[in-house]
Design goal:
Number of helices: 14
Oligomer: single chain
Helix content: 40-55%
Order of helices and strands: EEHEEEHHEEEHEHHHHHHHHHH
Strand order of the largest sheet: 1-5-4-3-2-6-7-8
Structural class: alpha+beta
Shape: globular
Strand content: 15-25%
Number of strands: 9
Radius of gyration: 28 Å
Largest sheet: 8 strands, antiparallel, barrel
Amino acid sequence: MADTKREIERKYESDDSGLPDLTGVAGVAAVLDQGVAELDATYYDTADERLAASSITLRRRTGGTDAGWHLKFPVATGVRDEIHAPLTDKLPSALGALVRSRVRDEELAPVVRLRSTRDIRHLVDVDGNLLAEVSVDAVRAERLSGGGRKAEWTEIEVELADGGDPAFLDKVDKRLRKAGVRPAESPSKLARALAETGGKRQQPRKKDRAEPVTAGDHVLAYVRAQRDAIVELDPAVRRDVADSVHRMRVATRRMRSTFKTYRKILDRTVTDPIGDELKWLAGELGAGRDQEVLAERIGAVVEELPPGLVTEPVRGRLRTWSKAWGGDSRRQIIDVLNGERYLALLTSLDALLADPPLRRAAAGKPATLLSKAVDEAYDVLAGLVEQALGTPPGRDRDVAIHEARKKAKRARYAAEAAAPALGKPASQLVASMKDLQGLLGEHQDSVMSREALRELAEQAHAAGENAFTYGLLYGREEQRAAAVEGELPGVWQAMKIPAGSRAYGQGSRPRYA
């Protein structure tokens, strides 16, 4: 079973003078010698160093107090999530799955061996609590692929204690700099080893991309961001990190919506089949997310009710219903991520970005093409909102509001893709569409909750239980939907964009400016 911890550390260049005196650091009562550890780590990657390109490290290490397999994902500068698995001869399948979206079908093989002599100190407060671990590492690196080149260096590493205040590292940093110690140029030992033994790269490739210029450049930049989000969220979804499934699902929707909105820029004969696969993936991810939202919503309302209005079996039945769906959807999602169809989708996205199916208009000016596409998405939304407002309350209005909600998302995503080119007007539209989407989403959640409550009531009735509470909750959901329907005309009127002529060209602004 793999364990995860948040690693917050800083690295420094060091000469042979060793560790400066740190007893003067504010809050440090003592510096305790923990002895010397001999560490031997072998780092794994693909032949083209895909993990290194994403600043991910995968190693098998012996020695020290945490021997085993370590997989590290970047979170922020100096912050990584480290996943630890017991020491085995072969890579644990749980860790292998977490890098599958990057590695795909490529083989993971040893690329670098790092042997370190680590001189360890603990910085503790007056109560003996650990504040940080400081080590001086004498590192010997050996390239295991491509010639066996070697390198040596010494560095100082300061790692914050679990649950510690990151601001403490600033205090240590100030003392080290005053003593002449320099921050390390490389973000990790592996990055330095790859560079000094002839590695192909030290920083992720995506940082080297040129700024968008044409309309096609802007659309592709947005598509690339969604592809990257799917790949980067894959490990989080597998680890069941909160909100990760929802965020991956949103990335698939953003990309699919972009293909449709910007069909004059990207060839639909290429994007439509990929869009179908994105729709499939979103659907597979959605079952668990929708169930999660419903369970949270219904459960919250149950807790708001006076105890006398909640019949005894309700909470238990709701928990059983939620867990049954949650467990099934969780297994289903993992099966999808392990499947060949998902890998094929990722490969097709890579191919699209490597050789974009740009139409002739893609070379045009962003202000013209992107503005028109955003206006078209808005016009479709406006028509659906007006249709919903003109439909009598009931099933038909529910459907019309749901369709308007989907088109509000499309208009929002269209404006998101255009915002870097169009600036403030597009950003303002994004904010407006987000608000409208939230209001319409509240209505749809009410519709779905009523369907779930009807199902729960039928199950309760069949089991001979009192279904009173479900009926009460159903009535409350009807009231919430009615409140949204009553609020919608005013909200829409406030954000509605009057019809008018469109002018594009040099210095022009889109109609929503």
